Amino acid sequence: MKSIAWTDELLVGHDVIDRDHRRIVDSITVLCESLETGTPNERAVGQLGTVIDLISAHYEHEEHLMRAIRFPGVDGHIVAHGRFFSDLTRLFYRLEQGESGAVRGVLACLYEWAFDHVLLYDKGVARYLAETQAA
């Protein structure tokens, strides 16, 4: 099982975004620990609910920021948020029902968020923000 833990590689260079990401990843780490048996349990389901809540609040902040700075990729970024959130919510219900493969799906989805979405999409937002503030 892939472990997901905070690493400085996930820093994007924007304090608010980085703080949100750190809280989310720390919560994901707790979720991973509760899934070590590979079997969904009440604690894991509750912890995934916490992760989803944190991500939802983060997306709201990030989307507001992208609109405020007129980030040119805002529409595609928001679509990526929606797709990920839909996938994660569907996996939450599968985990809650104890479906086989749900644990693996949850972990793969969260790993993709941490190491694909953050590194590709969110670093681009932070770079754009730094460039526009420097100008």
Description:
This protein has helices spanning 15-34, 42-68, 74-96, 102-134. It has 135 residues and is an all-alpha fold. The protein has a single domain (8-134), classed as Four Helix Bundle (Hemerythrin (Met), subunit A), CATH 1.20.120.50. The protein contains 4 helices and no strands. Helix content is 76%, strand content 0%.
In short, what is this structure?
The chain is mainly alpha-helical.
Keywords:
single chain; 135 residues; mainly alpha; Four Helix Bundle (Hemerythrin (Met), subunit A); elongated
Q: Any low-confidence stretches, pLDDT <50, length ≥5?
A: none
Q: Terminal Cα separation, in Å?
A: 45 Å
Oligomer: single chain
Strands, count: 0
What would CATH call the architecture? Up-down Bundle
Strand content: under 5%
CATH fold-level name: Four Helix Bundle (Hemerythrin (Met), subunit A)
Overall structural domain count: 1
> What is the overall number of helices?
4
Helices and strands, with pairings:
Elements: H1 15-34, H2 42-68, H3 74-96, H4 102-134
Helix pairs in contact: 1-2, 1-4, 2-3, 3-4
